[in-house]
Amino acid sequence: MSCTVIIGSQWGDEGKAKMVDYFSRDADVVVRYQGGANAGHTVVVNGKKYIFHLVPSGILHENKMCVIGNGLALDPLQLLEELDKLELEGLDVKKRLLISDSVHLILPYHKVLDEAMEELRDNKLGTTHRGIGPCYADKCLRIGVRAGDIFDADSLKERVEFLLKLKNLQLERVFGKKPFAMKEIMDIISLFKERAGKMITNTSDYLHASVKSGKKLLLEGAQGYGLDIDHGTYPFVTSSNPTIGGALLGSGLNSFNVSSVVGIVKAYVTRVGEGPFPTEDTGNDGDRLRVNGKEFGSTTGRPRRCGWFDIELLKHSCLINGFTTLALTKLDVLTGFKKIKVAVRYEHNGKDAGYSQSSLDSVEPVYEELNGWDENLSKVKTYDTLPSQAKDYIRFLEKNIGAKISTVSVGPERENTFLL
Ligand code: IMP
Questions:
Q1: Given the CA of residue 8, which atom of ligand 1 is nearest to it?
Q2: What residues does each domain of the chain span?
Q3: 405-409 and 417-419 as β-strands: parallel, antiparallel, unpaired?
């Protein structure tokens, strides 16, 4: 039995897609389990950059099956756009992608409502405006449209008529926005059915059959622990569960199927959007991390907030996710810093403060400083050839987090990765 789950351990953008691409070499099936086009997963192969929002990052390995699980919020037009781009690259995607019949569809009113809600709020969340929150809200209200619903024309029509009554009332009366016409929504659904209908199936059955026949599965998370709607810094979170529970719910697999859980850990911390970030550096060091690490959102282009490694955040991420091992990414970005800071604990009013997501904006991180290095790491292929200060940094993180780092990435390409 082999099923590896890849999870972002901080606030997203840890470099998951690159690691998914790396671990996909050993997998037969790659599965996305939550989130939607709010994610921007970047993979670089032979100098060419690919950004995926919905299609699993494993798609670049030609012989792998890819699955969009029931836990996503799926924007049909975005998916078709991604499929077009991949086909232009010569990748035969249609035979290798399955879509859960239970996945909820993002329709245009979700995106308008997402933006309108943000406009209205004083205390903005900084969402990606991709309609994620409104789509998951409809799922919980039991009024969403699922991929499998598009095959029953009569009940679909009835459902969309009801939805438009509701959404148009809200759009016009609450937000003063233009209403949507039935035709506009049905045209999108028809296009989706025509182009992707054959890919829609019961994917949890497919995954269990795959497990039974000895196939290797890789589950690809989006966002990260700190953005989890239950365990993150609520309300500054996304509307799904990027953590281990979400991997099971969003794929239909069970806990006995999982053989390893890999936490993707960036060598420093970033956050995009609003919300507490104890180790944020708003000065020169933060700017330097942003420039060196090209820390600009791949979905929205927004500059990411940057700061130092946070041990407390990681320890709690380990507790919630039960990582069996960690993969450290973007170590090369720290090259050139004379001193590298690591927050080892928090204080509040001069006293030790434990970790609580609800009080993160009032804690003071307590830092230790480690010596940096000047060597360019882009050609490093083994742990032994790392500068001694970089080795010390890795060992310091492992000791303080209390978990093993088994993989290190020192650049965007597949070959910039090695095992410890
Ligand atoms: P939403 O997921 O668009 O509703 O946005 C909610 C919060 O999650 C905002 O702070 C976003 O910036 C953040 N967020 C959503 N997706 C990602 C991601 O893939 N990486 C990092 N932050 C994200």
A1: 20
A2: 3-100+208-260, 104-195, 262-419
A3: antiparallel
Q: pTM above the 0.70 mark?
A: yes
pLDDT tens digits, 61-101: 888 999 999 999 999 999 999 999 999 888 888 899 999 99
**Atom of ligand 1 at shortest distance to CA of 272?**
12
HSE-CB for 107 with a 13 A CA cutoff: 29
Q: For ligand 1, atom 12, which residue shows the shortest CA distance?
A: 273
Nearest CA owner, ligand 1 atom 16? 38
Residues, the chain, total? 420
CATH of 262-419, one of 3.20.20.370, 3.40.190.10, 3.90.170.10, 1.20.1250.20: 3.90.170.10
Which has the closest alpha carbon to 322: 277, 241, 231, 261? 261
CATH no., domain 104-195: 1.10.300.10
Q: Show which residues are catalytic.
A: 13, 41
Closest CA to 224 of 54, 6, 10, 5: 10
Q: Which atom of ligand 1 is nearest to the CA of 132?
A: 4
Rounded to the nearest angstrom, the distance between the alpha carbon of 31 and the centre of ligand 1 is 20
Q: How far apart are CA 357 and CA 232, in angstroms?
A: 6
